[in-house]
Structure formats: structure tokens, C-alpha cells
Specification:
Shape: globular
Radius of gyration: 15 Å
Helix content: 25-40%
Number of domains: 1
Largest sheet: 3 strands, antiparallel
Number of helices: 4
């Protein structure tokens, strides 16, 4: 069994510097419909920024943890999908433990590998941090 880790930190204030809009290109490009739906329940601009920055840090951490497995899969298929934020969905959080689901090219690339991914998310003041572990 292989164990790989990933970690990332994001500055919350860098998200939506000109104000949050649900149709922002970053939101549509980087977050799944499920993540956007969960965000729609939030009430304040600060909550939107924190939610998206924390989840983006999670996506980066997960990608770092799975990148070696993706590289191994690419040796067989000849295709390495790279970092596609919307292929990594993180739902849950707050009182629920965050759960990672892979989609699209990332899920397809790893379809022949039995992989388990765990992610932890946190934020404080202007920073969001995430840590991920991949077992395969």
C-alpha cells in the first residue's frame, strides 16, 4: 500500500476581490454543482469567500496527494489529466467530515486504481488550510 500526502494554504481575501457573484468564472470552472449548491445556503460575503477558499485549498491538497497515482496511471494510458479543480469535489464540512469525490478525467484516470482519499479542512482569520492523504 502506498500513502501520499498533500497540503495547501489559501489566502481567503484573494477570492472574489471585487465581490462574490454566483456566476463568477472561477466558481463555474473550479467548483461542482454540489459545491455551488452548498455555498448557496450561506448568507454573507465572508462566508462565501471562506467556503470557496477552504475548498480550493482542499482541492489543491487532494491533487498533491493523488498526483503520483495519476502519474502511474498515465504510464499505462498515456494521458495525465493535470489539475482540474472541478474534478475534485469536496462536500460536507463544519459538523460533517469532508468527503472527496472524483469526477471527469481525474476519476477516469484513476478508475483502475483502488484509491482512498481523506481530507481535512480548516480556516482562521484570512487563511484556509487543507491536508489530504491518499491510500492506494
Amino acid at each position: 500500500m502506498t500513502i501520499k500526502t498533500g497540503i495547501d494554504i489559501s489566502k481567503i481575501s484573494r477570492f472574489f476581490r471585487k465581490g462574490y457573484k454566483p456566476d463568477d468564472p472561477l466558481v463555474k470552472r473550479a467548483f461542482t454543482a454540489g459545491e455551488r449548491e452548498k455555498a448557496s445556503e450561506l448568507k454573507t460575503e465572508a462566508a462565501f469567500r471562506s467556503y470557496y477558499a477552504t475548498r480550493f485549498a482542499g482541492k489543491e491538497a487532494v491533487f498533491k496527494a493523488i498526483s503520483e497515482a495519476l502519474a502511474e496511471a498515465a504510464k499505462r494510458s498515456g494521458s495525465f489529466p493535470g489539475f482540474i479543480p472541478a474534478d475534485i469535489e469536496i462536500l460536507g464540512g463544519a459538523l460533517e467530515r469532508p468527503v472527496v469525490k472524483l469526477h471527469g478525467k481525474t476519476a477516469e484516470a484513476l478508475s483502475t486504481i483502488d484509491i482512498q482519499i481523506d481530507v481535512s479542512l480548516s480556516n482562521e482569520d484570512d487563511y484556509a488550510v487543507a491536508s489530504a492523504i491518499a491510500l492506494y
